[in-house]
Amino acid sequence: MSRRGETVPFAFIAQADRFRSNVTPPPRARRSFRQVAGSALVGVTIVAGLVGSVLLGSPALTDNQVPDRDHPAAAEGR
To answer: How far, in Å, CA of 78 to CA of 69, rounded?
Structure first.
């Protein structure tokens, strides 16, 4: 079997990065008031949850432990 001596035209690959489509996407439809209000409500709910978790979790992070005065010898034996 002999190979054919024809060259394969790969010029389309070189032109692919210069190609510009003339098809434009359709314009976006405007969002209704309900959609905007729903998005705002979701955002406010998320922010309120984060703020609430910080406010409820911050007392657990404070270092205001009172030493146990009933058993001072237990602390000295370390």
So the answer is: 16
- Cα 45 to chain centroid, rounded: 17
For residue 33, the 8-state DSSP code is H
Tell me what the mean pLDDT of segment 5-31 comes to.
70
C-alpha 38 chain-centroid distance = 19
Q: What is the pLDDT of residues 19-40, one digit of tens each?
A: 667 788 888 899 999 999 999 9
State both tokens at 63: 């270092």
DSSP 18: T
Residue 19 tokens, joined: 């190609």
